Amino acid sequence: MPTVPIAWRSATSRLILVYGALFAAWALLLLGVIQWETTRYLNGVIDQMLLQRMHYLATTDAARLPATVDAAGAIDPHGIMSVGLFDRAGRRLAGNIGRLPAELPPDSAVHLLAAGMPRPDRADGRVRARALASALPDGRVLVIAKDTSTIDGLGAIIRHALLWGVTLTVIPGLLGGLWLRRGHARRIRALAQATEPIRQGDLACRLPVSRRGDELDQLAGIVNAMLDEIERLMNEVKGVCDNIAHDLRTPLTHLRARLYRVQQQLAGQPEAALLEACMGDIDAVLARFRALLRVSELEDRQRSACFGEVDLAQVLRQVHEFYAPLAEDRGQSFVLDVQPLASVHGDAHLLFEALANLVGNAIKFSPSGGEVRLCAAMGRHGPRIDVFDSGPGIPADEREAVTRRFYRGDNGRAAPGSGLGLSIVSAIVRLHGYALDIGDGERGARITLYCHPVRPGEVPGTCLARAVSA
């Protein structure tokens, strides 16, 4: 039976992952651009403030500059705007900047102090800042710096917004995706269950189509249309074959009757033997036509509506009684080994026919003095019937083909028959929903009939050519 894909391998899960990754990437890009633009704008505002403050202090009277610098630092107790005045040797003369930053050139241009601004009034001693230094005419250096904590805080807010935005989007997306995936999984399971009768040969079944009209419904509609055409073609081919087999039986029967009358008139003459051979060939053709019509009859699944409880042990005893004289005439040992069996749901006459074909083949291909065994026992899931013979066996590469119509293996070409016996058996097994397995016995072939519904993954009526769960 087809299986539902693993959750993370389903198309819905993959779409959720793809869309989630695209959304996360787009959110990162968008907020990254927002943060970059915001930072650039605020940096421009800070630079303008620093340049204006530098212009104001640089134009202050040189004698009053230290007092002005100290006053500027005093009115900014939080250190958002730092000011410092240093002599030629870099010693602090005024302000709240502890020392002259070595990486800040006195070029009157704004620079970012990545290592931070030294601040004696801060616990950590340094603070991220943008600063500029200007050399005064008397050799002193005036430094002005502004804390960038505002920009850093804004960046933190944007990052938190990104985290919350992604979280509040991904979690509902995952929950919604899980809900959607479960809905698709249910529909796929329904489609898989609907295909099981089709795989078993019932071409009248169709896939369910909902009212959504989505991709799954479109696919189901395409498959249903394809099944309509396949069913039509198969019915046409089957009808032609059945009509040919049915229509040719009447003239062949008349021909045989005429040949028989001529043979009676020529009794004792050499031509009588030739007519006898001709009638034998006609009988073989008629037997093949009857077998073909029998296979077509068994493929009509409506017959399963008449199934009932069947005593398998009784059917096996009837088969043994029917073929024991034939095996004795051929000098073979025909052994029946039946353990207590549960009754099964099916058709007793059809099961007798299937087992009779299997036992007949075993007797036909076993040599004189050989042994044929018909064994039955209860397995884990239901009754199991084994037919063993001491013939040449069935090669592994032919076990899948022997149930096809008219197929005859290398070991059976010389034996009489039409090549339709196992086709009839396969049709009966498929009609019951059982499984047929062909393998090797101790000295010849082993054919096993599992008289219980097949498990998922096994095809009813197919020669499995391998061990299955009993």
UniProtKB/TrEMBL annotation:
Which SUPFAM superfamilies does this entry report, sorted A to Z? Answer: ATPase domain of HSP90 chaperone/DNA topoisomerase II/histidine kinase, HAMP domain-like, Homodimeric domain of signal transducing histidine kinase
MF (Gene Ontology): phosphorelay sensor kinase activity
Which EC number(s) are documented for this chain? 2.7.13.3
Q: Domain (Histidine kinase): give its ranges.
A: 243-440
| Signal peptide interval | none
One of the record's GO cellular component terms? plasma membrane
Please classify the protein's predominant subcellular localization into one broad category: membrane
Which UniProt key words apply to this protein? Kinase, Membrane, Phosphoprotein, Transferase, Transmembrane, Transmembrane helix, Two-component regulatory system
Catalyzed reactions: ATP + protein L-histidine = ADP + protein N-phospho-L-histidine
Residue intervals of the HAMP domain: 182-235
Subcellular location(s): the record lists: Membrane
Q: Which Pfam families match?
A: HAMP, HATPase_c
Task: Give the transmembrane ranges.
Answer: 16-36, 161-180
Q: Which residues form a coiled coil?
A: none
Under PANTHER family, the record lists:
HISTIDINE KINASE, SENSOR HISTIDINE KINASE YKOH
Q: What is this protein called?
A: histidine kinase
